[in-house]
Amino acid sequence: MRNRRIFSVLTGFLALFLTLTGTANAVDRDSSAKRVFNAMQIVFNPDTPDAFCTIGTVGTDKYGRKIAISAGHCLRDERYADREIPEDVQPVYDRADIAFGPIGHVRYFKDPEGSMVGHATKDYMIIELVSAVTPSAQGPYLRQTGAVQVGAGRPSPNAPDPARAEERLLGAALFDDNELVVSGQLGVFYGRITNNSQGIYQSWAPHKAGDSGGPAIWHVPGSAFPSAENGFQATGPWAGITKAIVVGIPPFTYTSSANILADLRARDAARPGVYGAGFQVTNNP
User: Which of 38, 145, 240, 260: disulfide with 254, CB 3.0–4.6 Å?
Assistant: First the structure.
């Protein structure tokens, strides 16, 4: 009798679980509820899903547009590089849900490895998200809380004078213990910033091909590192995006959020209306 009673309770829990799961899946399939978040893998051609990059952060700009940021070197097309692209010429797809259709369109990119050699500090891409998606601060491992602000740090080389706090760089000197927490195909890792060259951070936090544009947050001193105990989750301000693997020790580099935000402000000052200008990380769950 006791075993039968336990079986009955378990059966009830299973039915409830299946009901809730079915409800959640129904919501996920509703296009108006589709979330776009940091560490989402993206493709630019649905016929080549293995040629992908990754979203670093999502939010809104000062003009009220929903924006995602990735790496500029993910695209190479001299016809469109380093200019605003109001036309919907380059759609962006969620690699895990191509059938949804475009989650956004590329509005700006600068490729420092192709036509824009010499612009290594400006390796970023702006994507305007479609109205049917919802920006989310919560990625698979990282929850972003605004952009990192440095009170007295060195300004980004892209910053207009005077630089704002979010346009100043994290230190990498011997006694600076700034660390990045990153998310990508390898899961979630963290590592100290060992070098800061013009706002390009070098860190022991690893990544691999396809993670370009992916998220890096600053490890807030005293906050929990990702671990088995907390489900490998971490929370902190957006600090940059994955850039490249270089010849060096360590070989992993990241474009600072300061470089991106500073360049957006400078370009918008020269010609107002720039996509992504005044970018704010979303606080949506």
Answer: 240
